[in-house]
Amino acid sequence: MQPGSGWIWEVCGSRQEAVVLKEINVKPDPPVPGQNLTVYARGIVNEDIEPGTYADVVVKLGFIRLLSRRFDVCQLAEENDAELKCPKKKGEYEITHTVELPREIPPARFNVHVNGKTQADVDLMCLDLNIDFGRH
């Protein structure tokens, strides 16, 4: 479990998945609604990531499910002009990406769960995030 000022992340899988995160940092810390959020992540890609890879994301506020959606990882990277695009070969990678957070995010604690599969049906990753927007 890796703490930040207003968030905690934890790898929830076996660490044998296609992508294993080693480090995540955000600025500002804690995140602030209506401001840009820059995310730095470092991890290892154990299996090639190609089109067809997907991530399932579930966002909850307490026990209330706010979002449950499947994302095409390669398409999402392309649409958001992400630093890493598909295909991605095995190796260690670092990325930095900035997004604008909506001003309307309420002052509350959100739980985010991410998992998925590669195009070859290998577990992609398992990640749990706990983000507290009540700390700003």
TrEMBL record:
Gene Ontology terms for molecular function: sterol binding
Boundaries of every MD-2-related lipid-recognition domain copy: 9-131
SUBUNIT field: Monomer.
UniProt xrefs under SUPFAM superfamilies: E set domains (SSF81296)
Membrane-spanning intervals of the chain: none
Protein name: Phosphatidylglycerol/phosphatidylinositol transfer protein
Keyword Transport assigned: yes
Keyword Iron-sulfur: no
